[in-house]
Amino acid sequence: MPSLTLPECGHYLPPPATKEDLEFADLAIIDLSKAHTPEGRAELYPQLRDALRTYGFVYAINHGYNQAQRDRIFDIADIPFTVVPPDEMKTYTANIEKVGYYAGFKGRQFWKVDAENHILDQIEHYGINKDIARRPHPQAVLDAFARHNHFNIVHPILRLLALSLELPEETLVEKHNFDGTGETCGCYRRSKEEEEKSKNVWLKGHTDVGSITILWSQPVGGLQIQAPDGRWKWVRHIENALVINTGDMMDFFSGGYYKPTIHRVVQPPEDQRNYDRLGTDNVRLLPYVESPVLHRVGIQRRCPDEDAPLCATWRMGRTTTYGRSDLKKGVEHNVEEEVIEGIVVKHYN
Predict the structure, then answer these.
(1) The pTM is what?
(2) Mean pLDDT over the full length of the chain
(3) What DSSP designation does 148 have?
(4) Phi, psi of 241, deg, nearest 5
(5) How many helices (H) and strands (E) does the chain have?
């Protein structure tokens, strides 16, 4: 029987929310507690559909963790960056370019933020597989948290998305097993010179690799999304809420019905710049042609069906090249491009 006593762990003190007058995105909020009944799912899926097709981002509340449980997760997530000695952390370094996923530690200055001005990232990253036993980790582990995210958050969202496509509820769930990665990361301050050269951009505009991304909202600002009018807007912090967005794989599966959301990370607002930012980031990628919705609106393929990559191949291609490859200027203004598995991938400045 597992112990009911929690291991000792220092308390992470979050910084205060910004008081700056920022242009925030007006994102919808969905109540995940309603996803447990057929009636609730029928009410929720149009809300989720409309939110993701407008901004590509949505907040979720009542996700099954109370404030104390959420705080405990941030306490644990802070350990790799503040408690584990640097020499020990090196033993957990992820071989990202070889294996194609982020499980393990990624140190700073690995990704190119601005190749022209030789600016590298200042982000430390620690990723875990949902099955945490797949590789060694520091003593603090997040098995219950990984399972909660997967089964109590990701699966309900996938069921709602399937309903929105008029597909059987378990259609997308069946494509998403427990064999994957999750991650925590810390973002650290840069020099004034680096900020000026990179125009305060910490991670340039991009889309995520997977189907959906879950971010546990935290107070330090920096996340921006590209609104439908092309402007960058800030994502507001909501206490104990989730920020959810769609990625590349959902674009493939939905035949372009759910676009991958373009977002970036920038320098925090001025009143938060003295704080570091802490956050908790073999199927073929074919559209569901049996969806009545896609029959009505049309399918937008990113490649011919016979050339569609496997999920694992796409993830490896995106992960091993992100921030490492030399990008080429695209046709669109302030857009750079690379080609992965014969498909154009765009990066937004």
Answers:
(1) 0.81
(2) 84
(3) I
(4) -115, 160
(5) 10, 17
